[in-house]
Design goal:
The longest helix has 31 residues, at 222-252. Strand 2 and strand 3 form a beta hairpin. The protein is globular and about 55 Å long. The chain has helices at 11-18, 80-98, 119-136, 155-162, 179-186, 196-203, 205-210, 222-252; strands at 25-27, 52-59, 62-69, 104-109, 143-146, 152-153, 165-168, 174-175, 216-217. The strands form 2 sheets. The chain has a 7-stranded mixed β-sheet, sandwiched between helices. The protein has 254 residues and is of the alpha/beta class. The chain has one domain (11-252): 2-enoyl-CoA Hydratase, Chain A, domain 1 (Alpha-Beta Complex), CATH 3.90.226.10.
Length: 254
């Protein structure tokens, strides 16, 4: 791990590390007790932000929204409340983009997928997240980061694939089904989840980069990831403006 290891930070610290100094402002923070009503009934202690941090601020002096999932709470699983926070934040970014306000949306993904205790509600929430990303990327670039110890699995792996740019580190993993799930359903003959070197050869971000599923592979450093995020927006903003200009030029000749 590096001295400023991104994977060692919690969700709130990761969001703050990406934003310009002094611009971090949290929406629906813990003091507002925005927590799942379903966990306590099952003997599970809820978390007052339901494991999702939504922050507004600036990235290179441009307005930004950073959504950061806490992998240490319920494995970063997505339920009704956390999913609503993510979808709602993306929809707010879309509202800004739709009226011409520049916005830079970032998803920090550290999640095992849908929360088992809220399965159907989680499925609905993740579908809303997918729809929000697709709508938003028509007007703005969306950057995803996979840098946590959980990785990114399940329905949120699809969300990762929908991002305009996906950034990963050696610490991150990406897959539709996690190693433990595959072993449980298909047996150790199919996959031994205790074979860590083998798991990283399949699911690790370096492997995913070689397969074209990760766009940028960077060190597990907050400074390097913040720099990569800024570079992704600068590159994609330039590309988007060029392709839009080409479209308009082509339209003139139709």
């Amino acid at each position: 791990m590096t001295r400023d290891s991104f994977s060692e930070m919690d969700a709130r610290e990761r969001a703050a590390a990406l934003l310009d100094p002094g611009t971090f402002r949290e929406l629906l923070g813990p003091w507002q007790r925005f927590e799942s009503p379903h966990l306590e009934r099952q003997g599970i202690v809820p978390q007052s932000d339901d494991g999702v941090v939504v922050a507004r601020g600036a990235l290179a002096a441009v307005s930004a929204v950073v959504i950061s999932i806490e992998g240490n709470f319920q494995g970063g699983s997505i339920g009704e409340v956390g999913g609503a926070k993510i979808a709602g934040a993306l929809e707010l970014a879309l509202r800004d983009a739709s009226i011409g306000r520049p916005v830079r949306p970032v998803l920090i993904l550290d999640t095992g997928g849908i929360r088992v205790q809220e399965a159907n509600l989680g499925l609905l929430a993740v579908s809303e997240i997918h729809a929000a990303i697709l709508a938003l990327r028509m007007r703005s670039n969306v950057v995803g980061i996979i840098a946590g110890k959980i990785g990114c699995f399940g329905g949120m792996a699809i969300a990762a694939g929908l991002c305009t740019t996906l950034i990963g580190t050696e610490v991150g993993r990406l897959g539709l089904n996690g190693p433990e799930v595959i072993e449980q359903e298909a047996g150790m003959e199919e996959l031994d989840s205790s074979d860590q070197p083998g798991i990283w050869e399949i699911f690790g971000c370096r492997a995913r980069k070689s397969q074209g599923q990760i766009d940028m592979l960077v060190p597990d450093s907050a400074a390097d990831i913040a720099s990569a995020v800024r570079s992704a927006f600068v590159h994609n903003d330039t590309f988007r403006s060029r392709t839009t200009l080409t479209k308009f030029q082509n339209d003139e000749f139709v």
